[in-house]
TrEMBL record:
The protein's name in its UniProt record: Arylsulfatase
Domain of life: Bacteria
Coiled coil: none
Pfam family for this entry, one: Sulfatase
Enzyme Commission number(s) of this protein: 3.1.6.1
Keywords annotated in UniProt: Hydrolase
Sulfatase N-terminal domain boundaries: 58-380
Keyword Hydrolase appears in the UniProt entry: yes
Length: 485
């Protein structure tokens, strides 16, 4: 693993420059450019092979697994160490209210690639979505000349390797025996494969790469669940992981009555969190996996910098879903609580004004928004049936003063898996201040005031004082559910 040491893209006055080695002033850079212009024909002759790639922006998506919004140092987590992602956030913008529209690995990935809600793309588990490939952002990029790469977890049936220029897909275990690398940790394998793609790609084409980590997903069949690399074991030895305030028996008992010991979220809670010593051991190993992903992100960013392409590359860090750390007496994801649906999003876009770098944005951005954002960056019009919005509207100068206001609410959906006793279906209308949840198989609805009850423990659906609000949110929920199809 390496470290991400990145020169700033602006001087002390916030003036951007790209002839960088840290200390070049803007004035000196101008003089250098004037001198270089004298040799422009020679430079152009030597740059054959780079010109075509520079015409379109490259895209790298760093995509982690089972990683909720606050598992970042920059997000205020008091324990986990993520210096490379923190540094990435300082060079771009971090979206603090970013959410997924379905909180499970396979469907969430389909949401990402298609820019559509589950109700439209049709993947309700781990198979392939029904949206035509050409309507995904992957298909659009490939059709417009991009060198297309995927490394790591796919989880939508078999990866269609013939549609990529470089594709290696694997997940499910933390350790692998491979012909190429011998015994290797999955995160190190992600790193090796990402470097292979970047170092061997053609230099005359723009490129796209997903580095799709399996970490921090548990190895569900293993008694230890989270299996970091040996060199990470020295991390977090002398710290105590705070237990969430709503990770209590009382919080579990506040869930709807159909939640019982057969529920898979409760089952996995027993695997990981049902006593204090186990909680500490599991969470420390979970955070070690997160720090390993952070280190590999640093290596990838170093390679981009080494190749001189960072100033023409959109870099995105996000994750497939949130994660319960014992809240509500649960583990894993699936349900509409904040811990499950809120995920990190960091975007570094070379077009971004200096004033936006290192800032945060509190608008509701969603997993379905990344597809149209990536296509807009590549200069490609989004297919008509994509449902997300171009996030760059939130950080690039406004061109069209008539742009629609940003969303203030969204529809969440999750399918039944196996049976309603195992993982029941759930839906929600999510706003910043209120959340309306529906458990359709049991005809149960819940209402939470997120301002006064951010841990979602006091259901107000039966409170007569909230009858008008409940009716309004129920009606709006119905409208957004229909619009998601």
């Amino acid at each position: 693993m390496g470290s991400f040491v990145k020169a700033a893209f602006s001087d002390e006055n916030g003036v951007s420059f790209s002839l960088l080695n840290g200390g070049i002033s803007p004035l000196k850079a101008i003089h250098m450019m004037k001198s270089l212009l004298l040799f422009l024909p020679v430079l152009l002759a030597g740059a054959v092979g780079q010109t075509a790639a520079a015409e379109k922006m490259n895209v790298v998506v760093l995509y982690a697994d089972d990683w909720r919004h606050d598992t970042l140092g920059v997000a205020g987590n008091p324990v986990v160490k993520t210096p490379h992602l923190d540094r990435l956030a300082s060079q771009g913008i971090r979206f603090t209210e970013n959410c997924v529209t379905t909180s499970i690995c396979g469907v969430s990935r389909a949401n990402l690639y298609t820019g559509q809600w589950m109700s439209r793309h049709g993947n309700r588990g781990f198979g392939m979505w029904q949206t035509p490939w050409e309507e995904t952002y992957l298909g659009q990029l490939k059709g417009n000349g991009y060198y297309l790469g995927h490394v790591g977890k796919w989880h939508n049936g078999q990866i269609p390797k013939d549609k990529f220029d470089f594709a290696v897909a694997y997940h499910g275990r933390h350790w692998y025996e491979t012909k190429e690398y011998g015994r290797v940790h999955v995160t190190q394998r992600n790193e090796n494969d990402a470097l292979k793609f970047l170092q061997n790609r053609p230099k005359d084409r723009p490129f796209y790469l997903t580095v799709s980590f399996f970490a921090t997903h548990a190895e569900d069949g293993h008694k230890d669940q989270y299996l970091p690399q040996p060199e990470s074991m020295e991390l977090y030895q002398d710290v105590s992981i705070p237990v969430p305030l709503n990770a209590t028996q009382e919080s579990w008992e506040r869930l709807p009555d159909f939640f019982d010991e057969k529920n898979e979220g409760r089952n996995r809670w027993h695997w990981r969190f049902d006593d204090e010593a186990k909680y500490q051991r599991m969470m420390k190993n979970y955070f070690r996996l997160a720090s390993e992903v952070d280190a590999t992100c640093g290596v990838v960013l170093n390679e981009l910098e080494k190749q001189g392409v960072l100033d023409n590359t959109l870099v995105i860090f996000t994750t497939d879903n949130g994660y319960y750390h014992g809240e509500h007496g649960l583990a894993d994801k699936w349900y509409p609580h904040q811990e499950s649906i809120r995920v990190p999003l960091i975007i570094v876009d070379p077009r971004m004004p200096s004033s936006k770098k290192g800032t945060t944005n509190q608008e509701f951005t969603l997993s379905v928004d990344l597809a149209p954002t990536i296509l807009a960056t590549a200069g490609i019009e989004a297919p008509q049936r994509m449902q997300g919005r171009d996030i760059s509207d939130l950080y690039l100068p406004v061109v069209d003063a008539k742009s629609a206001p940003w969303r203030t609410e969204f529809f969440y959906e999750h399918p039944t898996l196996r049976s309603k006793d195992f993982i029941p279906a759930s839906e929600a209308l999510v706003r910043k201040d209120w959340k309306y949840m529906v458990w359709p198989e049991d005809h149960v609805e819940q209402l939470f005031d997120l301002q006064s009850d951010p841990r979602e423990e006091n259901d107000l659906a039966s409170d007569p004082a909230q009858a008008k609000r409940l009716a309004e949110m129920r009606q709006r929920f119905t409208e957004l559910k229909e619009a998601a199809k």
